[in-house]
Design goal:
With 82 residues, this protein is α+β, with helices and mostly antiparallel strands. The chain has one domain. The longest helix has 14 residues. The radius of gyration is 13 Å and the shape is elongated.
């Protein structure tokens, strides 16, 4: 499965659930993650290439949001569905 996210440097961009990224932070993050081959970034579009690696490098906020998703909606994220 491929995940794509649009990012703009003019307004806050939603990188994932309720995570706002501004221009300097967006540039640094996309550059670092692109060099690590976790994402591909071109013209404001992010394509997630390695979700597992991306999750491992994220802060504890990702797991908190994922747990809330499961708790509130009673659904498992796509990666755990069978």
């Amino acid at each position: 499965m491929c995940y794509r996210v649009s990012v703009t440097h003019r307004k806050p961009a939603i990188a994932s659930n309720n995570t706002h990224v501004y221009s300097t932070g967006a540039s640094e993050a996309t550059s670092t993650l692109s060099q690590a081959r976790m994402i591909a970034y071109h013209r404001g579009q992010i394509k997630i290439l390695n979700r597992e690696a991306l999750e491992k490098t994220s802060c504890e906020c990702y797991q908190i949001l994922e747990n809330e998703f499961v708790r509130l909606l009673g659904l498992l994220p796509n990666k755990q569905r069978k």
